[in-house]
Amino acid sequence: MANRAIAYASEAISGLDPQRLTAMVEDAARFNHDAGITGVLLFDGQRFLQYIEGPEDALGVAYSRILGASSHREIVELARGRVGRRVFPYWSMRLLPADAHELSQAAYADWRGFVRRAGREGSPWAAMDHLNAVVQPHLG
């Protein structure tokens, strides 16, 4: 079965406290683990950018939960589509800090095709390159 992915950005509600954020991520990790979904959630203290991947049916249910969550607003879907292989096969959900500039670069980059272009001569970075740059220091 082909994997699909969804990326979105949103604004955290005012006054989102760290305990609620931790509980939200733990709940998502449990759900995603059971549903076969993996992904990462970037947070700069005010905005989120999330990338999730997995089977289409499970991804639809997870995204419905995301759209209904009261922890954020102004949700903007950045991309949705088929992916060849998982980018985050071991993370049912991982919350990572990002600075505002990093998050903005990823949100406003080219999300078409969930591809990486960094290192290709003359090619500007794609959104997945920016996402990878934030995630790399946390691997290992």
State the shape. Answer: globular
Compressed to H and E, one letter per element, the order equals EHEEHEEHH
Number of self-contained structural domains: 1
Largest sheet: 5 strands, mixed
- Report the total helices: 4
- pLDDT < 50 stretches: none
Give the overall pLDDT as a whole number.
92
**In the CATH hierarchy, what is the class?**
Alpha Beta
Helix content: 25-40%
Strand proportion, as a percent range, falls in 25-35%
Radius of gyration: 14 Å
Q: From the 3D structure, determine the CATH topology.
A: Alpha-Beta Plaits
- End-to-end Cα distance, whole Å, is 28 Å
Structural class: alpha+beta
Number of strands: 5
CATH architecture: 2-Layer Sandwich
Strand order of the largest sheet: 4-1-3-2-5
Question: What does this protein structure show overall?
Answer:
- The chain has a single domain, classed as Alpha-Beta Plaits (2-Layer Sandwich).
- Helices cover 35% and strands 29% of the residues.
- The protein is built from four helices and five strands, in the order E-H-E-E-H-E-E-H-H.
- It has a five-stranded mixed β-sheet, sandwiched between helices.
- A hairpin with a 3-residue loop joins strand 2 and strand 3.
Walk me through the topology:
Layout lengths: L2 E10 L5 H18 L2 E6 L3 E9 H13 L3 E12 L10 E4 L2 H9 L18 H9 L5
Parallel strand pairs: 2-5
Antiparallel strand pairs: 1-3, 1-4, 2-3
Helix pairs in contact: 3-4
